[in-house]
Amino acid sequence: MKSAYLRLVNRLRHLGTGALEHWQDPQVVYENVHEHHTPLRLLDNKLDAFAAFEQEKEETVFVRFVARVGDSRTCKFMLYPNPGAVPLAEVTARKCDDEVYFEDAEIPSVWQIEGNGDPPIYTNITFPWQRGWALSTSVPKRDNPTGVYRIAMDIPSGWIHAAQRGARDIFLILHGAGAGVDIFVNGHRIGYGQDSMTETEVVISDADLEEGTSNSLVLVVYRWTDGSYMEDQDQWWLSGVFRDIELQCRPREGGIADYIVSTSVQDSASAMVSADVRVTRADIASEDFEEVTVRAELYDADRKLVASNSAEAKHRAGFGDEFQEGGYFVAKVQLSVRDPHLWNVQDPYLYTLVLETTGSDGRVTQVEASQVGLRTVTITDAQVHVNGEPILVCGVNRHEWDPKRGKVILEETMIQDISLMKQFNFNAVRNSHYPNRHRWYELCDQMGLFVIDEANIETHGFSKVAHYSLLQNDWRWKQAFLARVKAMVKRSRNHACIIGWSLGNESGSGPNMRACADWVRRVDKSRTLQYEGGVKSGDSPMIMGDGRDPHCSDIICPMYDGPRHFAEVESETTAASGKYRKRPMILCEYSHAMGNSNGNLHQYWKLFRSPEHPRMQGGFIWDWVDQGLSRPDVMKGNWGYGGDFGPTSGREDSTFCINGLVFPDRTPHPAMHEAKYLMQPISFSYDPTKPAKVDVRLETHCVPLGKLKFEYRVYHSAQAAACLSGVCEVEPVDKPRRGHNARSGHAARDVDLQLVIPHTKLRQLWADELRGITLYVEATLTEDLAYAQRGHVVAHDSFLAYESVSDLRNSFETMLLEDDLSEAVDGGVRTSTGVKVVHVERGRHIRLESTRYTADFDIAVGRMGEVSAGDDILLEAGNGSVQHCFFRAATDNDLGGGDTMLPNELLKKFVPKSARAFSGFWDRMGLDRLEVVPMRIDVDARVDSDSRADRVVIRVFEEHRHGSNPRFKTDTTYTFTAESIFVDAAVFAAPSIWKGKIPSLPRVGLRMTVPGQFEQVEYFGQGPVESYPDRKAGCRMGVHQTEVDDMHVPYIQPSENGGRADVQWVQFTSRHTGKQFRMSYAFPEHDEVRPELFEGLDLSKTQAAPSRRPAGMFGAQFSASRYTPQEIHKAKHQIELPLRGKDSPIHVHLDTAHMGLGGDVSWFPKTQQQYRVIGAEWRYRVKIDPL
């Protein structure tokens, strides 16, 4: 029904369409361009095959580079305001008098980063050249910057002579340029192409070539073309020539034009490698054709020949299940491999295939080589299998991105990306949302990553006008879709790392995409096919897809389904049949990593690893790298985002390009550690009754056991250093194989082991029931691998010597309460010294002195002032050294909502409360600017005169108002004893808070100001990295040491950061004097720790609701920063934060309740209900101890 409507709309759209330029016409994708094929190397001899893949493609006798990534050159460049302003005849001539007016420019590069008045633009959905909410696919003629590159080419004389004799053809290959490019050589227009992320290859043999550098290559690059409507991929819109420019001289007769390598594995004893080799022939219809023999040799990793065979090229109707008029000349060679070594991510073993063509005279015409991984990909029992084993996809989406070069990606950046992915236990990457540089696939083959390759297709902008599938139902665009899909497959199909094809992203569905799916299934049956943009009905969606299109996807691959909804989809589709068959379930995008995010990630992995959900095979986190752009002339060393480069550079979508797991320079976000733990391929389990035994399971995608060492450390709650450590003994476990992996939920040949900790003292510690003991175990590499060095931690886990969280919590409450407080509250502490009360200003300012500390208190307004110990100030006075705080600097997820994301103010008024940003509620409630009004101050009678007392109690009642509206009332009791200061807090929310007018509070806690010298921090809680109530699974509960400045996480848009979850105590040390003091936390015994619910595991259970404290929170949320929440909240970049030195004060927060981060999505308030904070009353206690 929707498809029919869209076809009608398209007919109406094209009424009266006039003549179009080739760069405006959707039916012109290429002009005079060679078809895509596997990359050709034209090696000098077969001995070069072994070294050919150890680095970037090298020059040979018949391969030259005009310009290449990592070895750029200078060319001449001119930017014109539009195509019509380009004097084509003059600028494309062999000799150009106007070249003196051109600027020098690096190539490869993108011109927006060079800085020439045309700004980089970031949009998530919007077509930036369009104005208004149009359905037009017109391309602007006036506002369409057009770059002209003039490059001198050096063509070897031997190539020119061979071309003149008709023996060879000279090819020019642009590996990446766009959005569209016209190619001129020596004044001749050679061709045109507009898939900017795949090759545009043309023959230049007849372009009046001359020996030497007198040959001119002119590239006219258009910023906008009709193809731009298909490249709306949530990234910076950048233009230029950003990949290699290559020259090749290939045989016209009897050479290799293309080849397809396929593998099949019969069993562990045998495998087959097949090579279909398409041989070049100048005239396919001619009967006069010299015999050509193709010889194939397969070598193992030690360069030992394991199989060889030959075949003659014959005339065939098809090549790779493709057919053309006149057919092809193809040689089919098969190689049998005995005892094959299979390729997988944990053991990416590669063979080298060498192909030679020879004529009837026995002379070698061409030598090619390809690395081959023997592996199979199938779907069995609604699971994706590799080599007969179901896989667990620990995946991430990756844009090609360099913060200084944009789309120009160096090899070292690729290696760095893969190494980091592997180090953090990712085993799969989705090329979002376009094919990558060829070297990327070679490295993924070599280092071991599963790849989902994706066509350069996204038409997301039409969803803004609810016509998502518009182009899918327009026959004029069919060839444009097909061309991009074909390019992806033909150029990369020989790579073992690619286990599946994706037809594109967020482009709706319809006849055009179904034609693409049919073509892929016909030509490649060895991989899976997926596409998110369709819907389960098979019709054309108008706004968004659900990843369940039965025609276009072998996998149910939605994006951003929450855990519960994902489980509901599984339940709904379990009994499906026919075209709605039961299929594997892999999230193509999930856990949106925007800023301080990725909360709730453990909820997904509970599902993925559950034996009850074997179809759920993981997913791809969005996404890998923050697309921060560094331009010194604009950002002064900071990373910019949308809108930072001028009013037209993308203010609407702003920071939406900053959603990676790593910063632009590839420094990992703290959330990477959470992902690493949840995806680790080794599981540990521990029985407290057997304190020297740990059960271990190695999943099939783990590195081999022989490359691992298991170590243990034992920690006590009072110290950061381990009290015991050593190497574990490894014992095999002889027990029946269970049908499913208890951790991954997928049938697998996993390895079960038991670790024995050979330390009699450990048993004694457990026997003595010493509280606060933590056992930590880890698996490390015993040798260097391609992606990590010896000693790298592959997996870890820790176990507390407690039966439950409540047991742990009660233990620390006892530690806090066992001395002064209980007696002080009940009648005073009997000490010989006590507390001396000194009246500094009678009726207003008193000073409380003990042998341990001195504290000032303003009894007129109820605020504690400076606290010192000897010459050291411990707490600064300010507006009160201890203050209640209910606000945090908004995270990117806190800012996400319909009221902040929609561009239209009128539409924002109709956004329901459930879709409004958390930060908007906090702002309307004035949580960042509450006025504190003292209501009553009860002062201990002993304060009336200068005296010494066993204890002094001051009770302060305050109201926290926004304007005239009360938000909270607090009852704060300060108890001063000889040893310590106790702060008992009772917080009561006004009805405007707890009666549903706010979906969650950011925090409820105390804020204290500590002098800057107390920068050394030690705490007992979750660590060692940043953690929050819904992102702490990968942390270890124990004592950790850090420094305040190291706790600051410089998220590109400053936000709440650096927190530590479940903190029982924190200790500060002065770098100057070594003085120390400690803050400890507890909350009342009757407040139980609320258990976490994993909603997707049992759909019959009621969904969790908000509460006074997030689920699973059993200590305080602690942070320490040199910035206030208000300062962080106001800043839009790190450079906008106030300059702070080592002596700047430290703002310490201890929160009895702190909202989770969320992360399922960032554009709506999706922090799970159980990690939200809402309630009417909170009570807790903080103890301050000078040491």
TrEMBL record:
Keywords of the record: Glycosidase, Hydrolase
Family matches, as Gene3D superfamilies: 2.70.98.10, Galactose-binding domain-like, Glycosidases, Immunoglobulins
Domain Beta galactosidase small chain/ residue range list: 847-1185
Coiled-coil region(s): none
Record-listed E.C. numbers: 3.2.1.23
Reactions catalysed, as given in the entry: Hydrolysis of terminal non-reducing beta-D-galactose residues in beta-D-galactosides
Enzyme class, first EC level, given as a word: hydrolase
UniProt keyword Hydrolase present: yes
InterPro entries tied to this protein: B-gal_small/dom_5, Bact_Beta-galactosidase, Beta-gal/glucu_dom_sf, Gal_mutarotase_sf_dom, Galactose-bd-like_sf, GH, GH-type_carb-bd, Glyco_hydro_2
Family: Belongs to the glycosyl hydrolase 2 family.
Descriptive protein name: beta-galactosidase
Natural source organism: Durusdinium trenchii
